[in-house]
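*** Backbone structure tokens ***
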Amino acid sequence: MRTESDPVLDLIEQALRTRGVRGVAGAIATLIRSGALTEGTRLPPVRRLAAYLGVSPTTVAAAWSQLASLGLISSHGRRGTFVASPPARRPRRWRSSPTPLARYDLGTGAPDPLLLPNPLAYLKALSHPQPVTYTDPPVLESLAEVLWPLLPEGLHPERGGALAVVDGALEAIDLLLGTLAPNATSVAVEDPSFPALFDLVETHGLSVVAIPVDRDGPDPTSLERAAALPELGAFITQPRAQNPTGVSTSPRRRDALAHALARRPDVLVIEDDHSGLLAAQPLATLAGLHPTTAYVLSFSKSHGPDLRLAAVVTHSDRCEALEQARSLGPSWSSKLLQSLLAGMLRDPGEAPRLEQARSEYQRRRSRLGELFEVELNGDGINVWVPPLVDTDLALELAHRGVRVIPGSAFSSQPDVARAARITLAEPRHAFDTVVAYLAETAALPPQANHTRRAPGR
């Protein structure tokens, strides 16, 4: 029979749903995120909490380890374990560090500037009304007019959708994660995936549930297992030109994903369409099939990273919460940039330019496939080269003075460590110059039997 009374112990027990590692860690994470356990609160010692909850000390210690890895708690030796200060908003996987010296850089993840529209031509024709005031709507009307036809019909205003314009896809996802309910403590993320997405999830104090990706998109069986977790709050997916694999979700796979989430209408699906208008594949969206969806269309790859603009369309209540969060910071994205993007999208020459860019990136993908003697599928500005027999591709190319990003940056799976993501553009040189250089320097050791595997497998 218990004789002790401790408000922290009582809080943890009340929040507990299951008595395994996941249950203990999830309960404490929920209490921290909701503010019930505030910064600096001293947590009970492992053995004391284990005895109180009726679980083994090993279970509590493992939960402590998970919470510490997320930056939610911190150990101070004999002083004890405390609720940590809010996680620093800095990348953990995708650190901004100086680019290693290399003759050629195919690791930027940025589009070829020569395949982007020239903003000067549009600046001259820029027509913007009177100066913006704080009372103006955050989305420029002329931009909204050209954006709505590009967005999924399942999220149009007649179906309860609303539009926001923010400073890039990552800000959009950051804001959307901030709208999750306090009892949501985990988020499903494709694996491999863009490292900053993992970082964003963890800086919100949420844990990552990895969803493997194959040549048709995210694995629906893994997503269904994730959806069975009551603490799952969201699923972040890249429906086209997935970074790093280049995979686009097929319509059949999209339907399977909707089925996997059928029992969890509360889970927010965040569709990060970062390549958007540059992607050659049609969009297979969950909007209209899953009731809680937010679609993010970025223009960085198609119209220029310096625009820093992305459209977000989601249910009006969530969109209002997103704009309310922005009101404490930038409030709106530059109307001048919005007007510039509207002019680009209205240009009759825009469709042929985009088609030319798509064709050129596909040609470059084919050239790399010939060079590495492996079939390279996919879409967008990056190519995913699967592990080759006995070859660490990123290391091999680095020896030749060419920088690419190793597969380990995008996943914790050991089988992708020797894969590599290669951007189909070099910031200072023509891409064909780099390919010719690789061919001349025999970038790979002589070997006849490269592994032929589908991207993402």
In short: The chain has three domains: 7-83, 104-113+350-440, 118-346. The mean pLDDT is 87. The longest helix spans residues 350-372. The first strand starts at residue 42 and ends at 43.
